[in-house]
């Protein structure tokens, strides 16, 4: 039995009773001086009771259940930080309005009657707007003040945990499955708390339960990465139930949620990266970070590496640096499975990453 049906029944009964009482009153007044066409009290009560029952049956969900459902959906799309900041701003605005209401009421009429009411509206609006706009800085300041005297919960400044935990970063499913996020977060280079929406966890669970063995293995690795992140004391990880109604795709939900919360999205999905940038959402891409921290070499520098396979061209050998950068060695085939020193001849930046060409020293 749905809540709409229950609301219809309750509204029908209540308005039917109200209609009967109203009909009795109308019938009593009409029969003080009755005429030949005057209805009886019972007929008035029956007619108005029937109209009340029909009105309650039709209109009750429209004025009770559906507004509450719309309010619930609106509140569910707002983060807990925004709700708390709005409440603090509303209380602050009411305090300022209360302090100014008495001197404003002493002004001559009509200002003494209208200005206190307008002051309440203006101060409440500006209080909520200001606190929501600066909510990240506000919560970061409160967190710093509470953790300042507690060494157990106050990690070193170099970890950026205390200074930046007020900022949230949304995690995509792909970056959780990738696994590198745990190592990156452990270094302290991520400036904020990792926020994982419930719909991302649902997608991760769906992948972990997939009949495809490869997908199932990737989903379980993502679960292990989340477990590792939650066990790290210096990495703030939060799971939120904030959802986006009317949208089914996880990527679309992430973009809308990031725009509503004014926070970046951490991912390594190329398509999500491009779509988010087109909509003005800040994206932190793990692959771009990996390419940025690779060693920068110039032609003429020497490196030591191991040739592990043949290249596409005749006589070429291929090896890899410690950061995964591929090195193509001219005439390196004769040095297969050997550690050699090579001289860099050319550095080529491609869409897949950096490629280095070299020759044996």
Short description:
The protein is α/β, with parallel strands linked by helices. Helices cover 56% and strands 16% of the residues. Mean pLDDT is 82; it is low at 151-165.
Give an account of the 3D structure.
The chain is an alpha/beta fold. It folds into four domains: 3-69, no CATH class; 77-133; 157-291, Rossmann fold (3-Layer(aba) Sandwich), CATH 3.40.50; 302-360, Nucleic acid-binding proteins (OB fold (Dihydrolipoamide Acetyltransferase, E2P), Beta Barrel), CATH 2.40.50. Helix content is 56%, strand content 16%. It has helices at 3-30, 41-63, 65-76, 80-105, 111-133, 135-147, 161-164, 173-178, 180-187, 198-208, 213-231, 250-261, 270-278, 286-292, and strands spanning 168-171, 193-197, 237-240, 265-267, 283-285, 302-310, 317-320, 326-330, 339-350, 353-360. Strand 4 (265-267), helix 13 (270-278) and strand 5 (283-285) form a beta-alpha-beta unit.
């Amino acid at each position: 039995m749905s809540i709409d049906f229950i609301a219809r029944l309750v509204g029908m009964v209540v308005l039917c009773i109200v209609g009967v009482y109203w009909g009795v009153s109308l019938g009593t007044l009409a029969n003080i001086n009755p005429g030949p066409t005057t209805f009886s009290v019972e007929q008035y009560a029956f007619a108005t009771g029937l109209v009340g029952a029909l009105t309650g049956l039709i209109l009750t969900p429209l004025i009770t259940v559906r507004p509450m459902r719309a309010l619930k959906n609106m509140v569910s799309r707002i983060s807990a930080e925004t709700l708390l900041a709005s409440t603090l701003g509303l209380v602050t605005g009411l305090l300022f309005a209360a302090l100014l209401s008495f001197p404003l009421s002493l002004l001559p009429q009509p200002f003494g009657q209208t200005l206190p009411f307008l002051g309440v509206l203006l101060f409440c609006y500006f209080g909520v707007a200001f606190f929501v706009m600066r909510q990240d800085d506000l919560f970061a300041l409160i967190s710093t003040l509470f953790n300042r005297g507690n060494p157990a919960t106050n990690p070193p400044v170099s970890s950026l945990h205390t200074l930046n935990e007020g900022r949230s970063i949304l995690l995509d499913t792909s970056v959780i499955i990738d696994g590198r996020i745990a190592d990156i977060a452990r270094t302290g280079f991520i400036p904020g708390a990792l926020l994982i929406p419930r719909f991302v966890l649902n997608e991760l669970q769906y992948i972990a339960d997939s009949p495809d063995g490869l997908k199932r293995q990737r989903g379980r690795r993502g679960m292990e990465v989340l477990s590792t992140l939650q066990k790290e004391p210096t990495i703030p990880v939060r799971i939120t139930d904030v959802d986006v109604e009317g949208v089914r795709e996880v990527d679309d939900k992430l973009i809308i949620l990031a725009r509503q919360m004014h926070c970046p999205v951490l991912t390594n999905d190329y398509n999500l990266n491009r779509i988010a940038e087109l909509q003005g959402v800040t994206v932190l891409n793990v692959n771009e970070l990996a390419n940025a921290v690779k060693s920068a070499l110039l032609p003429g520098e020497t490196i030591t590496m191991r040739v592990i396979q043949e290249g596409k061209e005749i006589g070429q050998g291929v090896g890899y640096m410690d950061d995964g950068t591929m090195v193509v060695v001219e005439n390196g085939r004769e040095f297969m499975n050997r550690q050699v020193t090579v001289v860099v001849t050319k550095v080529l930046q491609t869409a897949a990453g950096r490629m280095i060409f070299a020759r044996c020293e």
